[in-house]
Amino acid sequence: MEIAATCILPGTNRGQLLSTRQPISFWGCVDPVTGNISDRRHELFGESISEKVLVFPFGKGSSTGSLMILELLRLNLAPAAIINIRTEPLLATGPVVGKHFYGKTFPIVNVEESDFKLLKTGIHAEIVSQKKGSYVRI
User: Fold this and answer.
1) For the segment 36-49, what is each residue's pLDDT rounded down to a tens digit?
2) H or E element: which one contains 17?
3) Do 10 and 129 contact (CB within 8 A), yes or no?
4) What number is the average pLDDT over the span 72-100?
5) Phi/psi at 109 (nearest 5 deg)?
6) Mean pLDDT of 98-107
7) Residues 22, 136: contact at Cβ < 8 Å?
8) Are 38 and 30 in contact (CB under 8 A)?
9) Going by DSSP bridges, is the β-strand pair 81-84/53-55 parallel, antiparallel, or unpaired?
10) What is the pLDDT of residue 98?
């Protein structure tokens, strides 16, 4: 099944979905040294985001979150891709800077809320994010 998506950051990758209906702040919610969700109040507490296709509705938090993503990229602990309903610009800054400094980045796409509900933890997916014809294949 292919789900239409909107390109936020281009790229192609695949991996197992790690999905939550709760927003994620990379500052205070993700440990940049382990790649694990570190916020005890979050439903994904203890889960590793490394090499996963991280699915969450939108980000929350501060500009420091982009630095946490940059550190995850440096340590090879970043997600394989991110799928949101709405991506805030600060979230995309980390992977953009990571490409410049480390030659590492990952695709980010937005999907419609009705399609977002289909993206369940454990499903394997391919993300193709490009200016025309972006999609998530599950």
Assistant:
1) 999 999 999 999 99
2) strand 11-19
3) yes
4) 96
5) -130, 155
6) 96
7) no
8) yes
9) parallel
10) 96
Q: Alpha-carbon distance 116 to 111, whole Å?
A: 6
* Matching residue, tokens 């192609």: 12
Window from 44-48, 59-63, 106-110 with minimum mean pLDDT: 59-63
Q: Which residues have a catalytic role annotated?
A: 62
Say if CB 56 and CB 30 are below 8 A apart.
no
Write down how long the chain is. 138
Q: What 8-state DSSP symbol labels residue 45?
A: T
Q: What is the pLDDT of residues 79-88, one digit of tens each?
A: 999 999 999 9
3-state secondary structure of 97: helix
Closest CA to 10 of 94, 127, 137, 90: 127
Q: Which residues, at least 6 apart from 98, have a Cβ–Cβ distance to it below 8 Å?
A: 69, 70, 73, 74, 78, 104, 105
For the entire predicted model, the pTM comes to: 0.97
CA angle at 58 for the pair 55 and 61, rounded to the nearest 5°: 120
CB 128 within 8 A of CB 12: yes
The distance from CA 129 to its chain's CA centroid, rounded to whole angstroms, is: 13
Buried-state track 32-41, b at ≥16 Cβ within 10 A, e below 16: beebbbeeee
